[in-house]
Amino acid sequence: MQYSLIIPAHDEADNLPPLLGEIRDLPESHRPIEIILVDDASRDRTAPLVADMIAADPTLRLVRLPARSGQSAAMLAGVRAARADWVATIDADGENDPADLPRLVDLALASGADLIGGLRQGRKSSWSKQMASRLANDVRRNVLKDECSDSACGLKLFRRAMLLQLPAFNGMHRFLPALVQIAGGQTRFIAVNDRPRRHGRSHYGNLGRAAQGLVDLWGVLWLKRRSLAKAVRAAKEGP
Predict the structure, then answer these.
(1) DSSP structural state of residue 109
(2) Lowest-pLDDT range, 65-79, 99-113, 131-145, 203-217?
(3) Residue 80 to residue 93: CA distance in whole angstroms
(4) What CATH topology corresponds to 3-234?
(5) Residue ranges of the domains in the chain?
(6) How many CA atoms lie within 13 A of 86 on its CB side?
(7) 160-189 burial by CB neighbour count: b if 16+ within 10 A, else e?
(8) Cα–Cα distance between 179 and 194 in angstroms, integer?
(9) Is the model's pLDDT at 164 over the cut of 80?
(10) Of 7, 45, 70, 148, which has fewest CB within 10 angstroms of its CB?
């Protein structure tokens, strides 16, 4: 399978070189045909660092957002720029393990699903962040019935055309499994490795993220209840 790999990044200059090195070390059969680094208005050397690396790596591309727009906007900008029919995403902080990408590809080929999502095992983040994440995932799963215990995991693989037809909003990256299901797509999930952040600290606070997540949750629930996807899929031609 040929796929594009998108890395949304904000102030991750110290984490990118080792992450890109790990991606290049993937087996050739499962290596992305291109790596799209989407710089979300970083204030550090992220953009010039990647620009320098492009000369030595023709598969590396740089997309820049002029103002800080968030992970969902960075993801969408990368998806729109991608050349492959399949797109994978991975966090820039090194917490996701590129070695899991081949397993996502193999599951997509075997299952025919439209989205393969990672489920992080052995979380290495702080206790407070883990508890906030577990609570948010439990609430979301019970409300939306998306059967996903870790929708915010940055490691995902999906059909580009499927994602481009989804409603775009700030925070949508945390609801991709439910949004794909609402659009009539199939989802599958697989356990993936979780690692500690190499450098720097998280750009997200637990309280602010939880508050915004609740607002988004009710919006996605409204969308699920009002969706016409099932009716359209059931339509048949002829008498």
Answers:
(1) H
(2) 203-217
(3) 22
(4) Spore Coat Polysaccharide Biosynthesis Protein SpsA; Chain A (3.90.550)
(5) 3-234
(6) 22
(7) bebbeebeebebbbbbbbbbbbbbebebbb
(8) 24
(9) yes
(10) 45
